[in-house]
Amino acid sequence: MSINFNETLPWLGSSVDALARTPIIQNVNETAWIFAVVETGHLLFLAILGGAVFGLNLRVLGLILPDMSAKDVERMVRPYYRVGVAGSLLTGLAMGLTVARTLLPSGAFFIKILALLAAIALSHVLTQQVRNGRTRISEQGLLAFATLFWLGSLFLFASTEGLDSGALLVGLAGAGLLAAAVQRRLRPVVMGFSTAALALWFVALDGSIWPGPTQLAGWFDHAALAVVVVPALGAGIRGLQTDASSKLLALKLLAFASTLTWVTVAAAGRWIGFS
């Protein structure tokens, strides 16, 4: 299964082509050094954005900066986050318009945009909750939509032929992050279940774990993964809880989801050339 912008928004192609024919975009596309400058700027803004996002997320998870409060870290990274988001979007848009014909039919690009919307929304909700100590009703709705967008992007990533191995990297990042963030006594449990899940997933990429009718085999593969993934997540959540309140646990889970969503964005971007 592969979903892209050409299939979901067929009218978008003509609109993007019209923008791509504007003198400014044509000049960028035809002048090598201008495109190189834009691409370099895009990478720099991504580095700034990544530092701001992961700095706050890892602090909320208790992995870095133990002597600083999460609120102080949020205040410190706030300007970098805003500059990173704005710069990445502007330079990414400029680059995307020059190669729109190759991006619109790309399943990986569709997944990246879906995950990007979710990542920005999750980071916004996290920063607001850290800054204000509470989540407004509007932000709860945004959180729900962002979670659905992220889960949808993960589903497409894992079910699209040629991209499913990229989704494995997201799972690997999640397993490592969860193992690092939980209590030490629960790390072997989380790592054991996560290793089993990733191994089953890796085997399933090349063929069914259980030979048989295709549909039945697919259900068996998913059931086998669920048997090990669910306990891993359960142990991870239990490990994140420690002696914290339910409010702090929710904040940690939000930071965990936000981190993995940005990892999904990065992985989908890397796999654009393979879709």
TrEMBL record:
Signal peptide: none annotated. The chain crosses the membrane at residues 32-58, 79-97, 103-122, 142-159, 165-182, 189-210, 216-237, 249-272. Residues 39-134 form the DUF6644 domain. It holds the Pfam family DUF6644. InterPro entries: DUF6644 (IPR046586). The keyword Calcium does not apply. Keywords: Membrane, Transmembrane, Transmembrane helix. This is DUF6644 domain-containing protein. It comes from Sphingobium cupriresistens.
